[in-house]
Amino acid sequence: MAGGGDPGWVRSMQGADGATLQVSAIGFGASPLGGVFGPADTAECEAAVERGVARGINLFDTSPFYGEGKSEQMLGHCLATSPSVQAMSRDQLILCSKVGRYGPTEFDFSGERVRHSVFTSLERLGTSYLDIVHMHDVEFADLREVTQSALPALHQLQREGYVRNVGVSALPLSALSNVLHLSGGGHPPDVCLSYCRSNLLDQSFDRTLQPELQRRRVGSINASPLAMGLLTNAGPPPWHPAPTKMKQACARAAERCGNLASLALRACLARSSASCTLVGMRTAQEVDANVDAAYEALSGKWPTEMQQAFSAVEQELAEVQGMTWPSGLRENNDDSMLTAEQEQELCKQ
Ligand code: NAD
């Protein structure tokens, strides 16, 4: 079985104080364990986590926002009951959660809430420390509050040993960059998590933010290689924020390809410059399919039918390349992102 131990599977990611974290090429995105992509069955989630660990995935990412705590609880349960995890020491796993976002419109980046949130996450995940805690979706907040309240609170927890690395996540790349700038004179985050900006639909993370992260020695995680379900044959969940035009282009691409998820993951891993790519999974079958696809991509092996489907898929996606929906406060969005008005216009078409 491909996976752990193979060349290219384990990568070094920059962490706090010049240290590096050894991360698997794909990380386990645990938002589906919180029911974000449909009901999460406990036995299926247990099997998915066990298979992930057995196949060499060592990084798990969750948040109190995913299913309002359900993802953290389910992940904690699955880790506690996994035979593979029981055979490992805690330092062989990289457990990541987040602070600041608690509901679709509920945000709190105050120092007090951050502290309380981290202790709740520790309890749900059954651990005494978290490897990375990200400030979640910071584009919805005043970035000065993020850097002046949440960031120092996380640094305090880092000094106390509850948090090993501090991270930041957002959709707009400029929000991530601005958090680095605003905290630049002091102590910036150790890791950036970008999502939906390095996949078949958009490669702007690799072009614009990653060079800055490398220069500043900040670790990089790329999430949502399947564009939160857009790049799958089953299509996106009903809440997906992409404009109709993007959804239609992805549905056409899926018709031209037997397994769009597998193609999208391969293309992402072949091109992405991030240390770890987070894929959302909730079944052992998805874990197997993704580890196999990742390993083939890293080895440069593409089945012939995938190579043929690749150009057809790229053709279908050409008209929506680089298109991104608005997210959070307008002043925190990238110039290249659609405005809310443009998005409404596209949804009518
Ligand atoms: P994704 O692009 O990884 O897609 C997940 C969807 O694809 C799910 O419906 C999953 O069941 C499905 N899927 C996975 N493997 C498949 C396969 N082989 N075949 C068919 N379908 C497959 O999107 P995501 O889950 O949103 O992103 C991955 C993870 O990254 C999240 O779970 C979360 O941990 C993290 N994330 C963080 C942020 C943030 O911090 N703001 C944003 C997005 C994602």
In short:
The chain has 349 residues and is α/β, with parallel strands linked by helices.
Mean pLDDT, nearest integer? 94
The helix tally amounts to: 12
Q: What's the count of strands? A: 10
Order of strands across the main sheet? 3-4-5-6-7-8-9-10
- Distance linking N and C termini: 46 Å
Low-confidence stretches: none
Helix-strand string:
EEEHEHHEHEHEHEHEHHEHHH
**Portion of residues in helices?**
40-55%
Main structural class: alpha/beta
Strand residue content = 5-15%
The rough form would be described as: globular
Largest sheet: 8 strands, parallel, barrel
**Measured on Cα atoms, how large is the radius of gyration?**
19 Å
Hetero groups bound?
A: nicotinamide-adenine-dinucleotide
Description:
The chain is α/β, with parallel strands linked by helices and 349 residues long. Helices cover 42% and strands 15% of the residues. It contains twelve helices and ten strands. It has helices spanning 42-54, 70-81, 83-86, 111-125, 143-159, 173-182, 204-216, 244-255, 260-271, 284-298, 304-317, 340-348, and strands spanning 10-14, 20-24, 26-29, 59-61, 94-99, 130-135, 163-170, 191-195, 219-223, 276-280. It has an eight-stranded parallel β-barrel with strand order 3-4-5-6-7-8-9-10, surrounded by five helices. The chain has a two-stranded antiparallel sheet with strand order 1-2. Helix 1 packs across helix 2 and helix 9 (260-271) packs across helix 10. The radius of gyration is 19 Å and the shape is globular. The relative contact order is 0.14. The mean pLDDT is 94. Bound molecules: nicotinamide-adenine-dinucleotide. Nicotinamide-adenine-dinucleotide binds next to strand 8, strand 10 and helix 10.
